[in-house]
């Protein structure tokens, strides 16, 4: 280590990425403050690492992967400029970009601290393996005591999806396996001899608990990814002294973990892997339908895609009949989702990443002793890290993997460490002077501005979520309702200025203005008109960051209809504008029962054309609808028939509704009242 670097600094280099990793655990695509904090910590880590490098003119690591990761990160950033939903894409830029960003920061760390920093980060990763495994086993046995059936007995740790959690465990398993083999092979004592090595035993115990946790998830995708990756590990570790008895020990642990964690489930996962079951299983069939719908999204936006993270906003309009097994949040295949959201170039980057992993495996399996000239222990360490990332990259063919923030962060760090072992060949001459920037302070200033702007937006996004999406905590801080409303009004005003693309503050202001215009009788007509116009402007502004918001379009249509006089619209103009907004919302979300019913009532029933209204409502039944919304739509059809005096048709609709959903109590009560009358 350089004498100019304090001895405490290596663990500080590892602390920031580890904190970012911990903060990401419960993000799950929803809790924006966690994404903001995790990303800001990452940016601060990057600024710290790159500050002296920029002053030195930015010498850059030689090799394909560092350059590729720069281009990949830049591509993610460029896609924000044509995304159909830029505000949502901003969040997924950081989620998906955390892999290349973490890689770039780690590989550019000073040589003097990189090795020792990894020791600290690896200790944190091992500790996280124990914590995650403990979560899985606690969930498993807790739910088992509660009597939950085998279909629900699938731990998900801190994530919302059990398959992604299984991928996370695979990502940790293979590096642990490699470190155990590398360490235990160095011992001179005979394997399973009387002399006990505590560190080797600790690694073996860690592998055992990770295997227990992994098999407790019952993830077919996780198991298949593990089965496809373990032969590479077996081949790569075969030359180790005493490799065979160690492998026998590992496979004994695998068998024991499988038997223990699948006993309560009747070993159903074996049947789930049978071709006949896969062909007819609802979740597998649903995946096929989702992939076909995602392909249709790509065909509709073939060049540049719909924008990062936009899948869940476009999917309702493309959902195919028969697919009601998913919430439609992700495509359960990162490759086809990359294609839909970013076009062929986006998919090309992901395929190139997978190809780079395959090439790394080739080098570490076949050329490590020749061209790489690596010591066996370091080769195994790099191989284990690459195998972990390789396992989740393959798993991404059947689940959403890289859309999970902790997996992207850890994959980037693991691959960076592996590349520093097998692919690092020194650095280029400083790049900045060669492009005409002779003062590193200029580049440093640009970096500071970029970090400040990004952090500012992320903090505003975190505040938006905390104040307008999940603000139950505010009731305890400000118990008085009027004071709380006043505070939120001021906060919304501030955030709309600081972060114009944020949607919730605009919607909050619009709802507040509209409520004041409708309830405050002391206001004269001009004041009410100003409030209504302001509400309309805020609703429209909320569509800038995320245009595909059927709920906001629903509110805009209702505003035109109810406030036509104040807006100076004739009844015909108000109706036309309301229908236009509602039809736009229904096109975005054809599953919306309320929008479909409002259009039917305004466009047809008000003009006495009940038959066309019922036909329009029934057309919604041809869309894929979950049972409860489907019953609601059938109830609206029955109400429309009843108001038109069609009693027999109403009764037939209610009977058909109850045949599909016998527990729909409003229909039961209505039929009973009709029978009594």
The number of distinct helices, counting runs of at least 4 residues, comes to: 29
Q: What's the Cα radius of gyration?
A: 29 Å
Strand percentage lies at under 5%
Q: How many domains make up the 3D coordinates? A: 4
Low-confidence stretches: 1-6
Provide an overview of this structure.
The chain contains 29 helices and no strands. The chain has 677 residues and is mainly alpha-helical. The protein has four domains: 9-56 and 439-470; 64-430, no CATH class; 480-583, Alpha Horseshoe (Serine Threonine Protein Phosphatase 5, Tetratricopeptide repeat); 591-676, Tetratricopeptide repeat domain (Serine Threonine Protein Phosphatase 5, Tetratricopeptide repeat). The longest helix has 39 residues, at 334-372. The N and C termini lie far apart (91 Å). It is found in: Membrane. The chain crosses the membrane at residues 12-28, 34-51, 63-85, 91-108, 120-141, 165-183, 195-215, 221-237, 244-264, 343-362, 382-401, 435-459. It is a multi-pass membrane protein. Pfam families: Wzy_C (PF04932).
């Amino acid at each position: 280590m350089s004498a100019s670097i304090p001895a405490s600094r290596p663990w500080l280099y590892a602390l920031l990425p580890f904190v970012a990793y911990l903060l990401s655990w419960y993000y799950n695509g929803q809790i924006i403050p966690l994404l903001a904090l995790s990303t800001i910590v990452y940016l601060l880590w990057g600024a710290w690492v790159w500050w002296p490098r920029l002053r030195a003119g930015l010498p850059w690591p030689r090799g394909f992967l560092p350059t590729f990761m720069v281009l990949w990160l830049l591509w993610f950033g460029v896609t924000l400029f044509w995304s159909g939903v830029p505000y949502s894409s901003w969040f997924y830029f950081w989620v998906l970009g955390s892999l290349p960003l973490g890689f770039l920061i780690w590989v550019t760390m000073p040589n003097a601290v990189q090795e020792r920093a990894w020791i600290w980060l690896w200790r944190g990763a091992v500790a996280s393996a124990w914590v995650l495994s403990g979560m899985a086993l606690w969930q498993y046995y807790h739910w088992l005591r509660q009597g939950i059936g085998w279909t629900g007995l699938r731990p998900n740790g801190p994530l919302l999806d059990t398959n992604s959690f299984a991928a996370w465990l695979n990502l940790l398993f293979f590096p642990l396996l490699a470190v155990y083999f590398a360490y235990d092979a160095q011992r001179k004592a005979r394997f399973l001899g009387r002399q006990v090595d505590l560190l080797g035993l600790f690694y073996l115990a860690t592998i055992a608990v990770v295997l227990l946790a992994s098999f407790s998830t019952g993830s077919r995708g996780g198991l298949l990814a593990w089965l496809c990756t373990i032969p590479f590990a077996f081949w790569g570790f075969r030359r180790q002294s005493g490799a065979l008895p160690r492998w026998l020990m590992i496979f004994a642990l695998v068998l024991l973990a499988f038997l223990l964690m699948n006993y309560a489930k009747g070993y159903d996962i074996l049947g789930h892997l049978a071709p006949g079951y896969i062909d007819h299983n609802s979740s597998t069939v649903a995946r096929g339908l989702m992939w076909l719908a995602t392909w249709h999204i790509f065909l509709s936006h073939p060049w540049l895609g719909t924008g990062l993270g936009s899948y869940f906003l476009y999917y309702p309009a493309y959902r195919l009949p028969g697919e009601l097994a998913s919430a439609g949040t992700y495509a359960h295949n990162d490759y086809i989702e990359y294609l839909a959201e970013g076009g062929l170039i986006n998919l090309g980057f992901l395929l190139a990443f997978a190809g780079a992993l395959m090439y790394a495996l080739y080098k570490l399996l076949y050329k490590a002793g020749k061209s790489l000239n690596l010591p066996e222990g370091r080769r195994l360490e790099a191989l284990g890290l690459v195998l972990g990332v390789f396992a989740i990259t393959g798993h991404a063919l059947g689940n959403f993997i890289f859309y999970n923030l902790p997996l992207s962060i850890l994959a980037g760090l693991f691959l960076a460490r592996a590349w520093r072992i097998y692919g690092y060949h020194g650095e280029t001459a400083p790049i900045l002077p060669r492009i005409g920037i002779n003062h590193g302070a200029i580049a440093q200033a640009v970096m500071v501005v970029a970090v400040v702007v990004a952090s500012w937006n992320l903090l505003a996004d975190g505040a938006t979520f905390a104040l307008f999406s999940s603000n139950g905590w505010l009731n305890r801080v400000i118990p008085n309702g009027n004071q709380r409303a006043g505070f939120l009004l001021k906060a919304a005003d501030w955030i709309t200025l600081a972060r114009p693309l944020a949607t919730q503050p605009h919607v909050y202001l619009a709802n507040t203005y509209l409520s004041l215009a409708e309830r405050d009788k002391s206001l004269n007509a001009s004041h009410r008109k100003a409030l209504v116009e302001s509400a309309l402007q805020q609703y429209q502004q909320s569509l800038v960051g995320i245009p595909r918001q059927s709920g906001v379009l629903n509110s805009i249509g209702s505003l035109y209809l109810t406030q036509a006089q104040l807006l100076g619209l004739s009844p015909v103009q108000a109706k036309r504008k309301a229908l236009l907004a509602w039809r736009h919302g229904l096109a975005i979300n054809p599953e919306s029962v309320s929008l479909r019913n409002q259009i039917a009532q305004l466009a047809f029933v008000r003009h006495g054309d009940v038959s066309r209204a019922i036909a329009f409502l029934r057309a919604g039944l041809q869309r894929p609808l979950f049972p409860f919304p489907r019953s609601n739509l059938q109830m609206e059809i029955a109400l429309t028939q009843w108001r038109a005096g069609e009693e027999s048709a109403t009764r037939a609709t209610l009977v058909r509704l109850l045949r599909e959903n016998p527990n729909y109590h409003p229909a039961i009560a209505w039929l009973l009242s009709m029978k009594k009358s």
